[in-house]
Every structure is written in structure tokens, then in C-alpha cells.
Amino acid sequence: LVRFRGRGNRCPRQMAQGREDDGNAPPGTGCTEDVTPASPAIVWFRNDLRVGDNPALVAAIESGRPIACLYVFDEVTPGRWRMGGASRWWLHHSLLRLAASLERLGAPLILRRGIAHDVVPRLVSEFDAAAVYWNRQYEAFAVAQDTRIKMRLGAMGVEAHSFNGSLLHEPWTVKTKTGEPYRVFTPFWRACAQLGLARSPLPSPKRIAPFAHAGGENLTQWRLLPTKPNWAVGFEPEWTPGEAGAHAALIRFLEGPAATYANDRDQLGIHGTSRLSPHLHFGEISPVQIWAAAHNAPRAEKFLSEVGWREFAHHLLFHWPNLPERNWRGSFDAFPWRTDASGLAAWQRGQTGYPVVDAAMRELWTTGYMHNRARMIAASFLIKHLLIDWRAGEDWFWDTLLDADLANNAASWQWIAGCGADAAPYFRIFNPVTQGERYDANGVYVRRWIPEIAALPNNVLHQPWQADAETLSTAGVRLGQTYPYPIVEHGVARQRALAAFSSLRSEI
Ligand code: FAD
Q1: Is the dihedral of CA 173, 176, 181, 183 positive or negative?
Q2: C-beta of 103 in contact with ligand 1 (< 6 A)
Q3: Residue 20 pLDDT > 90, yes or no?
Q4: For 404, which DSSP code?
Q5: How far apart are CA 108 and CA 63, in angstroms?
Q6: 286 lines ligand 1 (CB under 6 A)
Q7: How far apart are CA 28 and CA 151, in angstroms?
Q8: Helix axis angle, 355-367 to 372-380, nearest 10°
Q9: Beta bridge partners of 73
Q10: Of 339, 450, 454, 508, which one is least surrounded by beta carbons within 10 A?
């Protein structure tokens, strides 16, 4: 953190030309005085797969140097958090779109695979580059890697410039009066509002002067797409990865569901939310662009506060780097989680016998996405009805979500489990039947994802075991055969969860 907060060693020419980074370069980052105009600047793309509002790209272009655009498929990320299967699908398509946009602007996208802190300096030497530009990330391993790269570039006498391209406010800029990180969302978001928007969205470049180079790797050889079987076949009709797809999603939202978002965002059967999360995760659109487009729209407050939850999650991850692995409240370390492989498998496959939970899990598997209310219900079921450790759910979501995001996923799982910051209390245990009846009253969601019970009438759709024999038979449902009985009874599970929780109570 200290390294990231410190100002870089500014050379006089940088200062005169205003070409230093945005003030967060580490000490030791040097400046090369004797570069020839032909020495390129490398723009290292990461989760900022866009050309609009891209501070690193704009700064590199302003340097007047020819530009080499680089994406590194990074193999350094720690095992558990290597990119999941669904995210790889998105990445493939997003890189194709980014490469096409850059090509139109005049510069090809160079693809390299490897460990970024080796690949980037190696490419600097190969290209005799004078500077590297990138937008920052906030996961502990990314912060460590950035620091390492900055040090190496500094030792090579190469400029390193990093920027804020993915948050409204970086985690170290929002602090309580006593200089501490925030632990509660509402005052955090109020503090963000007081800071105001740090900048307006930057325009897309009109042209990029390319650096002639020897070529990169072939995207198809990275094998990011599933083949046998192609489990991503259901993603295609739902999503358009890439910058244009992101802006189309924002416009669709602002012209439609935004007006009724506050009321409809919990309704499972409709597309009442923006569905921007994978676009935001991969940086195909920035929160600054979203803010600029939405903040004057009528009734945008609730929507923007959800973008605020994304900021808060990144704030938490930065200040508590173990958030994805450790209970934020240490008192939960003694929680008596159960080992239940068959319960976990039933949950993953959408075979728990609770229609709203099963619909949620099947939506996730088929489309790579799950509605936020459904995420809350499904996560609560795993943690509280099955007493399975929240980290098992976090892992499954990491692999299956297109928007899998270390900060948002970890903060949300901990929030549901009750062990996170500003979390829902553990004893708030969702009843999956009443949640289904409330947020999918006409059964659109459950019928879409569980065709085997679609013919049941609404009054038993969310609890098929309550239907009489004739109703089941008319609907073609054979419980225990075509659709499971509940794997756990709600009342029993609730009491068990409360008892487990009370074993911790004295410590909380
Ligand atoms: P909208 O309602 O349109 O919200 C706009 C944006 O705000 C979203 O795109 C997202 O970036 C952000 N946002 C909304 N809700 C939250 C939230 N609770 N926390 C943080 N940011 C939020 N979101 C992810 O992006 N990646 C994840 O890996 C992820 N895992 C989750 C796991 C669980 C158990 C739960 C309960 C929630 C998780 N979320 C995650 C948060 C939320 O469910 C999704 O961001 C949201 O459903 C995405 O749909 P949307 O873009 O239509 O959201």
C-alpha cells in the first residue's frame, strides 16, 4: 500500500510534459532520458478491455510514442483464483472485440501467455520500449505483481505509469475521519458522494500510432472456449461480450428497466436490472462512464448505490486482502460447518427439491449468470439449510459465473453468511418457499428453469410436495423421480442453523 501511495521519482521532462502517472507510481520508478522517438510505449491491458475511458491508453497516446498494445494471459494468479471456466469464455470473446477495435484504430493487440512480471519486462527489452502504461487492479496478488513489475522496470530505467481505470474512488482515497477504512456501507457511500466524481469519462482515441513488432500468440491456441462438451452453448444467446455490448446493455437498461429498478430489481421473472456485471468485471465499461450516463436519469439513485456496493467490495478486498479465504469476523472461525458432499452436489446441480433454489442454480449453469435475489436465496440455502461452508459456494460461483469477481463474490458470500462487513445477521434465514412466492409469484422464473414441474399450478409451484396426488399426476410430476423431494425440511434446517449459530454467540 505504501508503495502504491508514494509518488514516483519524477524526472523533470515528465513533469514538464505532464506525462507522469496519476500519482501512485512506486518509488524507484525511473525515467529514461535518452529514448528515441521510435521507442514504443507498451499499454498493458488487463481487466480494462475497452478503448473508451481508458486512462492508461490515453496517457500512452499522449506520450507521443508509438504504441504496442499487450494482453498477457497471466499464469501467476494463485491456484484457487485462476480464472474460472465461464470467465474464460467471456475473456475469449472480449479479447476478440478489443483486438478488432484496436485494429480499427491502427494498432494490433499483441497476445502473450505467461507470468506477467516476466512477460512485461521481457517485452520491454524485445521492443526496446521506453514506458509501460496500465490500469490498476486491487486483488492482493495483482498489487504484489504490479509492485514487482514497477521495481523491475525502474531497475531497467523504463517508465511505469499506472492509473485508476476501474473504480470511482480507489480504496485508499476513502477513509473515515480517523483515517481508517470504512466497515459499513452507508457512511462509505456517503463519503464517496462527498468526494464527487474524480474525473469525467475520457473520449475514445481517434487513432493509435502503432509500433511495428514481430507478432504475438494466437487466441484460439489459448483454448479458452469449452469444446467437448460445449457447456457454454447457452451463454451465446444471452450475452454480447465487448465494449459495444456493454454500452448497448447500459442503453437498454437506461431506456427501459432503470425507471422501475427500485421496485423490480428483486423480481426474478424479468430482466429488471442492468446485467452489466460481466462487462464491468472485464472493464469493457467503466463505473465512471456508467455514473456519467446514469446520474441525471430519474430514479437512478438505487442503481448507482449498487455500483457503490461494487466499490465497497473492492475497498474491503484491498484493506482485508484475505477476504476471499478468511471470515471477515474472526468469531466465525469456530463455526461448526458440515461436510456434505451429496448436499453440495444437489445444490450445484439444481436438485435440492426447492424450486426457487434449483431454478437459480440451473440459470447459473446454463447462462453463466444468476439474478441477484436468486444468488441471495441460493447462497443462504447452502450456508444455512445445508450448513456448508460459504467458501464451497464461493468456489462454485467462481467457476460458473461470467461476472466472477474476487471482490464482489467474496464480499457477497460473507455478507450472506453473516461473517462479512455490514452483513445480514446470521439468524436471518430465508425461507425458500416464501422467497419464491414473493419474488416469483407467477412462477415465470421457476417454470423457465424447471420444465419438469412447469405444469403445476401457482399455489404449489414453490412447494410441490404440498400438492395432492391428483394435482401432481395432472402436471406429470412424480416426486422422487421426475423432481426430488426437498433434501432437507425447512423448519428442521432452520432450527439446526440457529443452534449452530448460538454455539458462536458468546463470541460475537
Ligand atoms: P445491477 O442490479 O444492475 O447492479 C449494477 C452493478 O452494480 C452490477 O453490475 C455490479 O457490478 C454492481 N453490484 C450490484 N449488486 C452488487 C453487490 N451486492 N455487490 C457488489 N456489486 C454489486 N457480483 C459480481 O459482479 N461478481 C460476483 O462474483 C458476484 N458474486 C455474488 C455472490 C453472491 C452470493 C451474491 C449474493 C451476489 C454476488 N454478486 C456478484 C453481486 C450481484 O449479485 C451482481 O453484481 C448482480 O446480480 C449483477 O447483475 P446486474 O449487473 O444486473 O446488477
Answers
A1: negative
A2: no
A3: no
A4: -
A5: 18
A6: no
A7: 7
A8: 120
A9: 113
A10: 339
Half-sphere exposure for 104 (CA within 13 Å, toward CB) = 9
Residue 56 Cα to chain centre, angstroms: 21
- What is the 16 CA–ligand 1 centroid distance (Å)? 42
Indicate the top mutation candidate among 312, 369, 412, 445 to test ligand 1's pocket, ranked by most ligand atoms within 8 A of CB: 412
pLDDT tens digits for 415-458? 999 999 998 888 889 999 999 999 999 999 999 999 999 999 99
* Strand (E) or helix (H) holding 113: strand 109-114
Ramachandran assignment for 493, one of left (phi > 0), alpha (psi -120 to 50 degrees), beta (any other) = alpha
Cα(360) to ligand 1 centroid in Å equals: 14
Q: Is the CB of 317 under 6 A from ligand 1?
A: no
3-state secondary structure of 299: coil
495 Cβ neighbours under 8 A, 6+ residues apart: none
Shortest-distance atom of ligand 1 to CA 274: 3
Q: Please give the distance, rounded to the nearest whole angstrom, from the Cα atom of residue 213 to the centre of ligand 1.
A: 40
- Check if 276 has its Cβ closer than 6 Å to any atom of ligand 1: yes
Phi (first) and psi of residue 82, to 5 degrees: -60, 150
> How many angstroms separate the CA atoms of 505 and 332, rounded?
10
Active-site residue list: 306, 309, 337, 372, 390, 413
Quote the ligand 1 centre to 372 CA distance (angstroms).
6
- H/E segment holding residue 109: strand 109-114
Distance CA 256, CA 252 (A): 6
d(CA 42, CA 216): 14
pLDDT digits (tens, 9 = 90+) for 313-362: 999 999 999 999 999 999 999 999 999 999 999 999 999 999 999 999 99
> Ligand 1, atom 31: nearest CA belongs to which residue?
409
Secondary structure of the chain: what % helix, strand, coil (to 5)? 50, 5, 45
- What does the block give as the cell for 298? 430519474
Determine how many CB atoms are found less than 10 A away from the CB of residue 481: 8
What are the pLDDT digits (tens) for 279-297? 999 999 999 999 999 998 8
